[in-house]
Amino acid sequence: MAATDAEKGWRLDRFLATKLPDLSRSRLQSLIEAGAVAQGGATIGDANRRIKPGEIYEIAVPPPLPAEPAGQAIPLSVVYEDADLIVIDKPAGLVVHPAAGNLDGTLVNALIAHCGPSLQGVGGVARPGIVHRLDKDTSGLIVAAKNERAMRSLARQFAAHTIERAYHAVVWGAPRTAEGRIETQIGRNPFDRKRMGVLRGGGKEARTRYKVIERFGPRERPFASLIECRLETGRTHQIRVHLAHLGHPLIGDATYGKSRRPPRPKTPAEEKAFGAAAEFPRQALHAWLLGFQHPSLHKNLRFESPWPADLSTLVAALRLL
Is 131 part of a structural domain of the chain? Predict the structure, then answer.
């Protein structure tokens, strides 16, 4: 879609709305925010961008999703459940809700089957019960609402940043300081719509507190480290982006990690540790702690999740260094 002289200075979302009348303005704004619009090969994430004559824009509109996801009998590890909510220990590899590329087989499909018809439509038809998300390959605790009152209460707590969330991450190397706070703006990477990135402007405020729990390898130059991260905000891929920005990406993170060539192993223990890190099949991130106020009991609930086997095996190998 090419911009004309008459469209000079128009907002991007207004320009797209005239070219694609079948899509609403809000839908187009969502697509822009999701990184589906590009100009000159670069992703455009700002609906307020002013159009210049001659600019050509491309938009990738994903295929429509089913109006209502169907229940599927997928095993769930239920940590807690009552009439208001359910807390799940999500395994790595399970997508939270249907989206392009993952139309079913998600946590939402499993929740509909587990909770029954009462869950349908809670908080919206497409993502019933979903208050927050974990990436597909991040394991750990996630809470879902089972009625509108619980949905509103939990959503308010997430918006007010009063939910307690802590993650364990295994990263390459180790930060210089034992603990700190990362504060940036995060938005769509302008050159890769599938990635998020730290932006100088135009992104959303993102804050992560971290603390080094354990270092693996030589004291002067650790090979890897175990870090606890606590979210003050909840942006897409926030921990992964922030740790990569710090210079210590997650082991196994193919999207934000950097290729690391381990030193030549000198002992069987080093060979085992270096191999475990290099071959870890997902980002080494686990949501181990979740705490919130129950929407009707009005008391604080706090849950902990043990490490899954793959993360335990990785840390055990690294402790041999």
Answer: yes
How many folded domains does the chain comprise? Answer: 3
| Shared domain check, 53 and 26 | yes
Is pTM beyond 0.90? Reply is no
> Is 50 contained in some domain?
yes
Active-site choice (135, 137, 253, 310)? 135
- Classify residue 72: in a domain, yes or no: no
220: domain CATH number is 3.30.2350.10
The residue range of the domain holding 96 is 78-160
- Residue 82 among the catalytic residues: no
Residue-level pLDDT, tens digit, the chain, 321 residues: 888 888 899 999 899 988 888 888 878 888 888 788 988 888 888 888 898 999 999 998 876 655 578 889 999 999 999 999 999 999 999 999 887 667 789 999 999 999 988 787 888 877 889 999 999 999 999 999 999 999 999 999 999 999 999 999 999 999 999 999 999 999 988 777 678 999 988 889 999 999 999 999 988 889 999 999 999 998 999 999 999 999 999 999 999 987 677 778 888 989 999 999 999 999 999 999 999 999 999 899 999 999 999 999 999 999 999
Q: Are residues 110 and 26 in the same domain?
A: no
Half-sphere exposure of 185 (CA within 13 A, CB side): 9
Q: Which of 125, 175, 136, 88 is nearest to 283 (CA)?
A: 136
Does residue 98 sit in the same domain as residue 148? yes
